[in-house]
């Protein structure tokens, strides 16, 4: 694993009206790293993702990605720079086939890359090639998650934020998605996994960061972090 810092969050804060959803969040992610970002419901994980991906601005602080500040860039511009995210509820274009769904992000990456061949390659990487000409409504839950991952990673991002891609899946399906994420990481993609399926997070993460009520309360070796009394109390409810 390289020691280059690919992402740095500095003092990130976000308010919704009078409610503080994030406060002073500092985070560094190394190139090639697998980081788990955990925390109870409502602790600010998706808000952090939305600020990072440019869905809405943060009120305080900001992000540096590959040495460049992200402030002022739209979510599309961030995606073009290699920052990808999935959505908790998969958001395929319902009126397009599975293959056409992959052509959309490819088209963002430049006219030449939006070929059927490249789209099929993406589908093969998530084992969905046999469903290329199906409509999203014909896919199972786990296939929809795979399509979401293929859409997010079509442009071969340097950093992927996988936001609860395992929710509601069976044990075996979680293993399938885990294998896929390990493969993506093995091919060089840095991954931040936001997940409530603890088995998956602990198996996947080289490091864990914990958000509670909008603040980062722990960051380090997964075993050490999970055995911290404040994490057990806040997150695991023990
Ligand atoms: N658009 C919004 N307007 C007002 N409050 C919001 C908005 N988005 C999030 N919040 C609030 O901010 C807090 C953090 O929410 P967020 O969705 O980031 O938590 P989370 O850690 O991702 O939770 P979960 O694990 O349930 O997905 C919550 O209290 C939520 O109600």
TrEMBL record:
Entry-linked InterPro entries: AAA+_ATPase, ABC_AA/LPS_Transport, ABC_transporter-like_ATP-bd, P-loop_NTPase
Domain ABC transporter: 7-238
PROSITE patterns named among the record's database cross-references: ABC_TRANSPORTER_2
Entry GO MF terms: ATP binding
Transmembrane region(s): none
Isomerase recorded as keyword: no
Cited Pfam families: ABC_tran
Keywords: ATP-binding, Nucleotide-binding, Transport
Top-rank taxon: Bacteria
UniProt cross-references to PANTHER family, sorted A to Z: CONSERVED COMPONENT OF ABC TRANSPORTER FOR NATURAL AMINO ACIDS-RELATED (PTHR45772), HIGH-AFFINITY BRANCHED-CHAIN AMINO ACID TRANSPORT ATP-BINDING PROTEIN (PTHR45772:SF8)
Protein's name according to its UniProt entry: ABC transporter ATP-binding protein
Species: Pararoseomonas baculiformis
Organism taxonomic ancestry: Bacteria, Pseudomonadati, Pseudomonadota, Alphaproteobacteria, Acetobacterales
């Amino acid at each position: 694993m390289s020691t280059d810092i690919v992402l740095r969050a500095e003092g990130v804060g976000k308010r919704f009206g009078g409610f503080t959803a994030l406060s002073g969040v500092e985070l560094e992610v190394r190139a090639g790293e697998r980081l788990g970002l955990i925390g109870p419901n409502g602790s600010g994980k998706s808000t952090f993702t939305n600020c990072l991906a440019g869905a809405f601005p943060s009120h305080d602080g900001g992000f540096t990605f590959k040495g460049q500040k992200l402030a002022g860039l739209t979510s599309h511009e961030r995606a073009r720079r290699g920052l990808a995210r999935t959505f908790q509820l998969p958001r395929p274009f319902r009126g397009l086939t599975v293959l056409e769904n992959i052509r959309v992000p490819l088209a963002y990456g430049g006219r030449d890359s939006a070929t059927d061949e490249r789209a099929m390659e993406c589908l093969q990487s998530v084992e969905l090639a046999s469903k290329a000409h199906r409509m999203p409504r014909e896919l199972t839950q786990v296939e929809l998650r795979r399509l979401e991952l293929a859409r997010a990673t079509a442009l071969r991002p340097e950093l992927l934020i996988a936001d609860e891609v395992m929710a509601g899946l069976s044990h075996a399906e979680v293993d399938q998605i885990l294998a896929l994420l390990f493969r993506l990481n093995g091919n060089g993609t840095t991954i931040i996994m936001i997940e409530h399926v603890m088995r998956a997070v602990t198996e996947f993460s080289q490091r864990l960061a914990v958000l509670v009520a909008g603040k980062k309360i722990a960051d380090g070796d997964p075993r050490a972090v999970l055995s911290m009394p404040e994490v057990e109390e806040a997150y695991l409810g023990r």
